[in-house]
Design goal:
The chain is of the alpha/beta class. It contains nine helices and eleven strands. Strand 6, helix 6 and strand 7 form a beta-alpha-beta unit.
Length: 245
């Protein structure tokens, strides 16, 4: 199947990652060639990609937030769980994974993927149903970060069991329950798999029970919880910070 990727950064990262087949590129007629556009056109030429001029209404019919550019490409290339493990091994670092338990908002998923890519996560696991998948909207929300990540569709409980078989991987579930330990009490500088729960319900019981430890983030205000994407992003940063030390 084919789909349209829109927005300058998402199109740029999709071409740069070279993981999808690409078919044609549409540019707004008269668009100013600044930012990433010269590099996009260079990569398009290298890949012998058809570049077409388009009217505003043509691009708006694809996506109203197109930023004057649209790339027709093959659907997102999901990875196998084994690919994530191989990527971690090839990195020479302790494994670093992100597991998302029924994240349903594409904006939240995109934000988490953008952070995961920036923090050097070796792979992401999402369920294959009942959750947001890697759509063009998610690619846009991740600013193209999804294109550089290995993302597997897999049963989360089974993925956790597989990760526990790896050497020195500890699975931490973000949770606000009394059983959760403050993040400063946990060891985050080794092999880590962070699990972020659904926006409304948090972690499912089966997934929560599979975690080695439950992690809570410090809160100093009056609200009782953080947005799932914000909480996950903070946890990813703290894990990366611990690994750097």
């Amino acid at each position: 199947m084919k789909e349209w990727i829109t927005g300058r950064n998402p199109v740029y990262e999709t071409l740069r990652a070279k993981r999808r087949h690409v078919f044609r590129l549409m540019l707004l007629r008269g668009i100013k060639l600044d930012g990433h556009l010269p590099e996009i056109l260079k990569m398009a030429k290298e890949r012998k990609l058809q570049v077409l001029e388009a009217q505003r209404q043509q691009l708006d019919a694809i996506d109203s937030h197109n930023q004057g550019i649209a790339l027709e490409a093959s659907e997102y290339p999901y990875a196998a769980l084994e690919d994530l493990f191989a990527n971690a091994q090839a990195s020479g670092e302790a494994p670093f994974f992100l597991l998302l338990d029924l994240i349903q908002d594409p904006q939240n998923l995109g934000s988490l993927l953008r952070t995961a890519e920036l923090m050097g996560v070796h792979g992401v696991v999402i369920p294959s149903s009942q959750a947001a998948q890697i759509t063009p909207g998610v690619v846009h929300a991740s600013s193209g970060g999804s294109e550089h990540l290995l993302i597997a569709q897999y049963n989360l409980a089974q993925a956790i069991d597989r990760m526990k078989q790896l050497k020195d991987v500890w699975v931490y579930g973000l949770d606000a329950s009394p059983k959760a330990r403050p993040v400063h009490q946990l060891r985050l500088n080794g092999g880590v798999a962070l699990v972020v729960g659904n926006e409304g319900e948090g972690l499912r019981d089966l997934v929560r029970n599979k975690c080695d430890e439950l992690m809570s983030l410090p809160q100093f205000g009056k609200l009782d919880s953080l947005n799932a994407a914000v909480a996950g992003s903070i946890a990813l940063f703290l894990a990366r910070q611990a690994r750097e030390k």
